[in-house]
Design brief:
alpha/beta; Hypothetical Protein Yjia, Chain: A,domain 2; Rossmann fold; 10 helices; single chain; 307 residues
Length: 307
């Protein structure tokens, strides 16, 4: 787990590369927006995936969550199940569900891994955000990602945060580009960890407007999302697309898009966008998340990036 743009998807993709050949793994992924990008990214990587889109996993922790896990367990019978909540999701309800009922008998819950971007620790919008605080509090393994982009002040703040965490973390680590050690997945879960704000997160409401999925959050999370699907035959001019996305001030950018340089998985934040080549997808899709509504003219601007 971890907040928006911290590199969770990249980290899971890296873990999947370390999967023993004789093991069968699956991923349950949840996204804040309705379009769903991560599922397509994991599918392109050749892993079995189930998606819960259109809200936070902590809000959908009832029937959709249970059905998705039950299907994975029945149809795939994975040796290991990785769960990626949205960056806006509070982990308490998810952890509680996995520790009770029938899941307690069928699943062995291991360490919860939380990724943190140290640069965010300089911004009170994050350090006072209740979900951000509890993602860190409920984690067993705390990892500072993007260390290659972190300044000395941010690194110092991370070490201060990690040192004062109670109960102590099983492991505190630093990495770049989401590179995790697969052995961390088998570290133990400490059941004594408590959320400071267990009731912080409320249900997110979604309003479809003119075929554009605007997802309006409650005042607790304070985020909105935009998502759109373009036909597979649409092709973007790579330079125009990159110029447009690079000037956006958003928390997260994700997409799978066809360009005049080929198909790419797009994954980034407002300060860095990564483009990874990917096989042909069945459509173009993009999703943005921001603190304020920057989405009024996004669709028109994206259409101007088409060839």
């Amino acid at each position: 787990m971890g907040f928006l743009g911290v590199g969770k998807t990249t980290a899971i993709l890296d873990l999947l590369k370390q999967k023993p050949k004789n093991e069968n793994w699956a991923v349950l992924v949840n996204e804040f927006g309705k379009i769903g990008i991560d599922g397509a990214i994991y599918s392109a990587a050749g892993v079995t995936v189930k998606e819960i889109a259109g809200g936070c996993l902590c809000c959908a922790v009832g029937l959709p969550f249970q059905v998705s896990i039950n299907r994975l367990l029945k149809e795939v019978r994975p040796d290991r199940l990785l769960i990626e909540p949205t960056g806006l999701g509070h982990p308490k309800k998810v952890l509680d569900m996995l520790l009770t009922g029938r899941f307690k008998e069928t699943l062995q819950l291991r360490a919860s891994i939380c990724l943190v971007d140290p640069e965010k620790l300089k911004d009170p919008r994050y350090t006072t955000h209740e979900t951000f605080i509890d993602q860190i509090a409920l984690s067993d393994v705390l990892v500072a990602n993007k260390m290659d982009l972190a300044e000395a002040e941010a690194i110092s703040l991370f070490h201060q945060l990690a040192k004062k965490s109670q109960p102590e973390k099983v492991l505190i680590a630093q990495t770049i580009q989401g590179q995790l050690d697969v052995t961390w997945l088998d570290m133990p879960r400490n059941l004594k960890r408590q959320a400071a704000f267990p009731n912080a997160h409320n249900i997110t409401k979604v309003y479809p407007v003119n075929n554009i999925d605007h997802q309006l959050s409650n005042k607790t999370s304070g985020f909105q999302s935009f998502g759109h699907i373009f036909p597979v035959q649409n092709r973007f001019d790579f330079k125009k697309l990159n110029d447009f996305l690079s000037q956006l001030k958003v928390e997260r950018i994700k997409g799978i898009l066809n360009t005049n340089k080929g198909w790419f998985i797009i994954n980034g934040t407002d300060n860095k966008i990564n483009y990874a080549p990917t096989p042909l997808s069945n459509n173009n899709r993009i999703e943005l998340i921001a603190r304020q509504n920057h989405f009024q003219d996004v669709l028109s601007a994206l259409r101007l990036c088409l060839e």
